């Protein structure tokens, strides 16, 4: 650390702060320190030092998800762990709660525990701070959301293509007044779904009947949908952009004067299946499994260019998107 400090013309304390992602450090200073870390091959305290032991049976990986209470991420983590266990590796899991500051702290903690690799679902808007970890030998794969300016593998679902698939299905049923109910496009997955929704309608020469991106939970989705359906010119179909709001949208449709309003949701859930909601499903276990397999390929010495894997979605008709309503009707 002293050598890095001397080369970058800063104090040892400043180097430590850069390594641990402290705020209030100028971009110039941070850039100089990170450049010297890479040039000198410095490995901060807690990083693996020396050559990787080739006689070790197993090691450890970390998985950082957005919300561990979400069944989607629980299934993804389970799939990663299945691959990891098969390689006799331990898996440590943490949730960021969609908080970038907490995410950075957790990733630092993972690295300081000398984990071999990380699978990351990131809520952060920038990932340059992870470069020193890569340079120090930690392997990283992003899942569900892509990295920004970071040369690592990632595994994503076709969010835009899936939303477009839902719109095509509704257009095929004769709907032209289609509304979007979802959460903030500040989240990559939501932004991609909204992009696909708009693009497919535009290709058909149509505009969205309405777009609401303030349905943060089921209760909010109920209020938004009830308002849409109470309007004089109500939509005949609704696309819900995530499984957590399906119950609210379905209840509002069932309680409205137009219970035949079509509904298609992105992503499957037990509730959607129970309510007979047509969905565009993504294979979350394949997403987690692919991310883990890419990570272990890197740990095994794979040195190819970073790969971007986009998994397809599948339309699952159950009635709500085909004019038969939900089981609440």
TrEMBL record:
Keywords: DNA-binding, Transcription, Transcription regulation
Alphabetized InterPro entries for the sequence: HTH_LacI, LacI/GalR-like_sensor, Lambda_DNA-bd_dom_sf, Peripla_BP_I
A molecular function (GO) term: transcription cis-regulatory region binding
DNA-binding among keywords: yes
The organism's place on the tree of life at top rank: Bacteria
Record domain HTH lacI-type: where: 1-53
Presence of the UniProt keyword Transcription in the record: yes
UniProt protein name: LacI family transcriptional regulator
Source organism of this protein record: Amycolatopsis saalfeldensis
């Amino acid at each position: 650390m002293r050598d890095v400090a001397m080369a970058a013309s800063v104090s040892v304390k400043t180097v430590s702060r850069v390594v641990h992602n402290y705020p209030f450090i100028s971009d110039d200073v941070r850039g100089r320190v990170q450049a010297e870390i890479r040039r000198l091959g410095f490995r901060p305290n807690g990083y693996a030092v020396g050559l990787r032991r080739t006689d070790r049976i197993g090691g450890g990986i970390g998985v950082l998800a957005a919300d561990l209470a979400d069944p989607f991420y629980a299934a993804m983590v389970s799939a990663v762990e299945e691959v990891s266990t098969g390689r006799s590796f331990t898996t440590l899991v943490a949730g960021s709660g969609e908080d970038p500051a907490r995410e950075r702290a957790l990733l630092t903690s993972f690295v300081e525990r000398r984990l071999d690799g990380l699978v990351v679902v990131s809520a952060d808007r920038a990932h340059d701070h992870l470069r020193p970890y890569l340079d120090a030998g930690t392997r990283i794969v992003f899942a569900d959301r892509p990295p920004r300016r970071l040369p690592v593998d990632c595994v994503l679902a076709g969010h835009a293509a899936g939303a477009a698939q839902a719109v095509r299905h509704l257009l095929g049923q004769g709907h032209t007044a289609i509304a979007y109910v979802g959460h903030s496009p500040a989240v990559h997955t939501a932004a991609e779904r909204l992009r696909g929704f708009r693009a497919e309608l535009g290709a058909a020469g149509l505009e969205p009947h309405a777009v609401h991106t303030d349905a943060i939970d089921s209760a909010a989705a109920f209020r938004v949908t009830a308002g849409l359906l109470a309007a004089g010119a109500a939509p005949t179909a609704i696309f819900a952009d995530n499984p957590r709001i399906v119950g609210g949208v379905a209840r509002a449709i069932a309680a409205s004067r137009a219970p035949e309003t079509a509904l298609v949701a992105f992503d499957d859930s037990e509730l959607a299946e129970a309510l007979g909601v047509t969905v565009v499903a993504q294979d979350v276990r394949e997403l987690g499994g692919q991310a883990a397999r890419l990570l272990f390929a890197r740990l095994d010495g794979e040195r190819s260019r970073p790969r971007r894997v986009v998994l397809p979605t599948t339309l699952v008709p159950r009635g709500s998107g085909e004019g038969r309503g939900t089981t609440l009707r």
